[in-house]
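Q: Got a minute? One more chain.
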Amino acid sequence: IHRNPLEARLIRRLDSSAWTSHRAYLGRDSVSDWLTIDVIIKLFGGRSNVHKFVRSVHTKAIEYPADFDPDTGLFKKKAITKRIQRANQPVATASQSRRFQPAEKILDEVCQMTGVKRRELTRAVRGPGANPARRLAIWALSYAAGLTHKEIAMELKVPFYQVSRLLSRIRKEEQLQPLRMWMDVWRSKS
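A: Always. Here it is, folded:
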């Protein structure tokens, strides 16, 4: 599935933005609520290994694992059991190992840094660069509080589907002032 846009020549590189979840597996796009990637990442031993595997399948350079039977297309039962056991072991992600701050504290800091009142963070304004304080709050709640997109949506009264869209825009608009300056200040504090 991850190779389909590449095979259809809709994209030139496997890690280009496309209609698959491959970039989410690589950590380059946000992960939708309906998508569970942790098991696959654990099975492959990391995000880069997922990418290497898909790329190897595409270039036909892959060697089958020793516990894979190419005639049946299945892993041997013993191998599957071991892989499932490994996948179910908790592994701390980079975001889990970072110390997160409470959402209330984050929002107070955003208001202090941007000079806006709390109600401004929930006010919807359209257009590129509109309401940069709200965009900083969304980014900070993800970055410093570790909230999921759904939790951010509830905290700021933003429709859930817009949080992913806004975070994607923030990455593109990071060069816009004053958002860039605020984000730089925030990163320097952590």
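A: The first helix runs from residue 4 to 7.
Q: Perfect, thanks.
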